[in-house]
């Protein structure tokens, strides 16, 4: 069961109309019409993935009534780790003082928190772990190309955290679905800068160590995969769309969210949307939305919530959870 949630963002909020001053040919109207995004958060020099993840984690642990010493595992989904080695999860472990925990990162892009939650469920089923912190966090503004208008307007920074405990009395994950398709990896990727093409001054100059995306193709695949994933999650839980109290989709683009909800036959009043205020925060998007939904009272004891995610890889997945 999801026993507590929290989220944190950097201090600076950036509006759409600030891009023009940076020399990017775009408008507030274009960004709102095509994506639904109005604002995103941008980390400053004193903020790190570890710092915002730790803040989100403390909030989730407080909500769950769990201390750092009680954490058995820390799983952190991210595509923008503070360092390539070691994982950001161990840095969060150190910051929290969670001395007993095993800690590791999950690399599944926007599906990172979803993969992490399903891994946590599996670890709890072994009987060896009771309390698991699952974080989704990104500093995407550090890995986007600030000269590429196709991507720079879409992404933002943030962290969402959840404390998972072994399910009791029919609460927790009722169905879970995970998929990936690596044949489409080049449609959304960082072409260079990893071990295959270590960073050089040329790579930095051409920006090929930053996110590159074939937007239209990603859009089509996202709609198709998220729609299918909703069907799978409902089938797996033996539920109908009408049973779902709230759909929390990955927040990439309002048009993707609307198309997914339409396919799943869930009215927009039952869909949580905050892409307007955060942009696409990748692995952080679902746990940030979840925390807001909980704190706004849109999720109560017994609520049935469906989650659906899609991201680079491609990776995608879904879950139905009873709170
Ligand atoms: C990126 C995205 C918003 C573009 O919207 P779209 O309606 O598909 O727009 P198109 O790709 O058809 O581009 C339309 C035009 O707008 C231009 N454009 C792109 N970014 C722009 C921007 N920020 N401002 C103004 N114009 C822009 C393009 O260059 C293109 O111009 P052209 O027709 O002269 O070539 C959309 O494809 C999308 O959301 N894709 C999925 C992205 C995503 O969610 N990725 C993460 C998945 S987890």
- CATH superfamily (homologous) name of the largest domain: Thiolase/Chalcone synthase
Structural class: alpha/beta
Q: Globular, elongated, flat, extended or rod-shaped: what is the shape?
A: globular
The value of Rg in angstroms is 19 Å
CATH class of the largest domain: Alpha Beta
Side-by-side strand order of the widest sheet: 1-7-6-4-5
Q: How many H/I helical runs?
A: 10
Give the name of the CATH architecture of the largest domain: 3-Layer(aba) Sandwich
The largest sheet is: 5 strands, mixed
Query: In what range is the share of β-strand residues?
Result: 15-25%
- Average pLDDT for all residues: 97
CA-CA gap between termini = 7 Å
**Which small-molecule ligands are present, each listed once?**
coenzyme A
SSE succession: EEHEHEHEHEHEEEHEHEHHHEE
What attributes characterize this protein structure?
323 residues, alpha/beta, Peroxisomal Thiolase, Chain A, domain 1, 2 domains, 5-stranded mixed β-sheet, 4-stranded mixed β-sheet, 10 helices, 13 strands, 33% helix, globular, binds coenzyme A
How would you characterize the overall build of this protein?
With 323 residues, the chain is α/β, with parallel strands linked by helices. The protein has 2 domains: 2-170, Thiolase/Chalcone synthase (Peroxisomal Thiolase, Chain A, domain 1, 3-Layer(aba) Sandwich), CATH 3.40.47.10; 173-322, Thiolase/Chalcone synthase (Peroxisomal Thiolase, Chain A, domain 1, 3-Layer(aba) Sandwich), CATH 3.40.47. α2 (49-64) crosses α3 and α7 (215-237) packs parallel to α8 (254-264). The chain has a 5-stranded mixed β-sheet with strand order 1-7-6-4-5, sandwiched between helices. It has a 4-stranded mixed β-sheet with strand order 8-13-12-11, sandwiched between helices. Strands 2-3 form a two-stranded antiparallel sheet. Helix content is 33%, strand content 24%. The model has no long low-confidence stretch (mean pLDDT 97). β12 and β13 form a beta hairpin. It has helices at 28-35, 49-64, 88-96, 112-125, 149-152, 201-206, 215-237, 254-264, 275-278, 285-295, and strands at 2-8, 12-15, 39-42, 73-77, 102-106, 131-139, 157-165, 172-180, 188-189, 212-213, 246-249, 304-311, 315-322.
């Amino acid at each position: 069961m999801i026993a507590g949630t929290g989220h944190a963002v950097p201090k600076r909020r950036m509006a759409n109309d600030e891009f023009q001053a940076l020399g990017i040919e775009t408008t507030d109207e274009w960004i709102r019409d095509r994506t639904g995004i109005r604002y995103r958060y941008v980390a400053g020099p004193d903020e790190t993935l570890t710092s915002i993840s730790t803040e989100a984690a403390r909030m989730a642990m407080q909500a769950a009534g769990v201390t750092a010493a009680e954490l058995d595992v820390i799983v952190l989904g991210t595509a923008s780790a503070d360092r390539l080695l070691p994982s950001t999860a161990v840095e969060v472990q150190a910051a929290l003082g969670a001395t007993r925990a095993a800690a590791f990162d999950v690399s599944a892009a926007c599906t990172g928190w979803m993969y992490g939650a399903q891994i946590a469920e599996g670890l709890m089923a072994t009987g060896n772990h009771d309390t698991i912190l699952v974080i989704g966090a990104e500093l995407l503004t550090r890995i986007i190309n600030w000269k590429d208008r196709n991507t720079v307007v879409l992404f933002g920074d943030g962290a969402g955290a959840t404390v998972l405990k072994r399910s009791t009395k029919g609460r927790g994950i009722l169905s879970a679905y995970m998929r990936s398709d690596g044949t489409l990896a080049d449609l959304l990727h960082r072409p260079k800068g990893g071990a295959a093409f270590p960073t050089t001054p040329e790579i930095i100059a051409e920006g090929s160590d930053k996110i590159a995306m074939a937007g239209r193709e990603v859009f089509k695949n996202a709609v198709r995969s998220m729609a299918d994933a909703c069907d799978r999650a409902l089938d797996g839980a033996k539920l109908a769309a009408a049973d779902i109290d709230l759909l929390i989709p990955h927040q990439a683009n309002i048009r993707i969210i609307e198309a997914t909800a339409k396919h799943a036959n869930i009215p927009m009043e039952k869909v949580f949307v905050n892409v307007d205020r955060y942009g696409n925060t990748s692995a952080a998007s679902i746990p940030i939305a979840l925390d807001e939904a909980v704190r706004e009272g849109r999720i109560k004891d017994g609520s049935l919530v469906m989650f659906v995610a899609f991201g680079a890889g491609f990776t995608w997945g879904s879950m139905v959870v009873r709170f």
